[in-house]
């Protein structure tokens, strides 16, 4: 079972429920920690080594200001491996909050990859526990991470997922990835019209196994992820949902990615090759 950090949950009366008809899609955003919110220092047990990802505080504050509840769902096998104590991991988490502001729940898996627990991502346990702790239904949660396991945990729990690739995002995860059902932020390709292709970089290439995550979003950075979460983005479009002009628009992103996954519309070797070419450029 995942450990819930002493850092959360907490009530914040400044964050009221959205008014009826506000159109907000999500009630909670759950973040991976290492490589997503802070620089990835493997098995870190030292709060002095915590370095926020650029733009993380601003992105989180936008979500707080919009009334979303925030959580962290993080694998910390350093505890199981004997490389850090639970208390040391807690100290690192407290430092994260000092730098990035408060989170409403922390879910920490202390197990190793072969322990067979229900909480270690890609298992859905921490996402389910976070949703329960926050009082938010899992379909109203979105998980943001830098790894396919984050998206797989989200999908298994019935939540949405957003990938924000980091330098250590595993390039091999996307072997044989299908284009259909993947919304890509910051890529311009036949059937997709979005801005900022140059911001994505090679780290995105081949990171979403479609068999595991049939409808996911890739954002260039945390700001882009928040744009999509809040529905304010022109930087996310769903593949396989062309308009009359042959380009998918940002307004299609919320609904079309699931439909594309089911129908396979817009997929094909040529489209896949073009996506890979742009991402690797």
The backbone outline, from C-alpha atoms, is: globular
Which regions have little confidence, pLDDT < 50, spanning 5+ residues? 18-22, 172-215, 235-281
Work out the helicity level: 25-40%
Quantity of strands, as a count: 11
Question: What summary fits the major beta sheet?
Answer: 9 strands, mixed
Rg, nearest Å: 18 Å
Straight-line distance between termini: 42 Å
How do the strands of the widest beta sheet line up side by side?
1-4-3-2-5-6-9-7-10
SSE sequence, one letter per element = EEHEHHEHEHEEEEHEEHH
- The number of helical elements comes to 8
Overall average pLDDT: 71
Task: Give the strand content.
Answer: 5-15%
Structural class: alpha/beta
Q: What do these coordinates show?
A:
This protein is an alpha/beta fold and 281 residues long. Helices cover 29% and strands 14% of the residues. The chain has a nine-stranded mixed β-sheet. The protein has a two-stranded parallel sheet with strand order 8-11.
Descriptive key words:
281 residues; nine-stranded mixed sheet; two-stranded parallel sheet
Task: Summarize the SSE layout with pairings.
Blueprint: E1 3-4, E2 28-31, H1 56-65, E3 69-75, H2 78-81, H3 86-100, E4 105-109, H4 125-134, E5 141-145, H5 148-157, E6 160-163, E7 182-184, E8 191-192, E9 216-218, H6 222-230, E10 237-238, E11 247-248, H7 253-263, H8 269-280
Parallel strand pairs: 2-3, 2-5, 3-4, 5-6, 6-9, 7-9, 8-11
Antiparallel strand pairs: 1-4, 7-10
Helix pairs in contact: 1-6
Give a short summary of the structure.
It is built from eight helices and eleven strands. With about 280 residues, the chain is of the alpha/beta class. Helix 1 (about 55-65) packs parallel to helix 6.
């Amino acid at each position: 079972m995942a450990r819930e950090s002493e850092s959360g949950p907490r009530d914040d009366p400044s964050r009221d429920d959205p008014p009826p008809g506000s159109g907000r899609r999500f009630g909670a955003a759950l973040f991976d920690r290492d490589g997503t919110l802070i620089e990835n220092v493997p098995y870190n047990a030292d709060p002095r080594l915590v370095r926020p990802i650029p733009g993380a505080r601003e992105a989180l504050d936008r979500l707080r200001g919009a009334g979303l509840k925030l959580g962290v769902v993080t694998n910390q096998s350093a505890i199981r491996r004997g490389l850090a104590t639970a208390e040391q991991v807690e100290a690192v988490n407290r430092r994260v909050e000092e730098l990035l502001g408060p989170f409403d729940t922390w879910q920490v898996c202390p197990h190793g990859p072969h322990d067979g627990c229900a909480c270690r991502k890609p298992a859905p346990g921490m996402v389910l526990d976070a949703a329960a702790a926050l009082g938010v239904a899992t379909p109203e949660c979105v998980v943001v991470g830098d790894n396919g396991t984050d998206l797989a945990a989200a999908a298994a729990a019935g939540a949405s997922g957003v990938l924000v690739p980091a330098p250590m995002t595993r390039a091999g995860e996307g072997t044989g990835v299908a284009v259909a059902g993947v919304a890509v932020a910051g890529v311009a390709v036949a059937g997709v019209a979005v801005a900022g292709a140059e911001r994505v970089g090679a780290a995105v290439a081949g990171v979403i196994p479609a068999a595991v995550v049939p409808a996911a979003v890739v954002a260039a950075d945390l700001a882009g992820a928040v744009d999509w979460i809040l529905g304010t983005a022109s930087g996310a479009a769903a593949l396989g949902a062309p308009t009359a002009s042959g380009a998918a628009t940002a307004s299609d992103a919320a609904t079309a990615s699931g439909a594309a996954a089911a129908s396979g519309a817009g997929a094909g070797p040529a489209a896949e090759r073009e996506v890979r070419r742009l991402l690797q450029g």
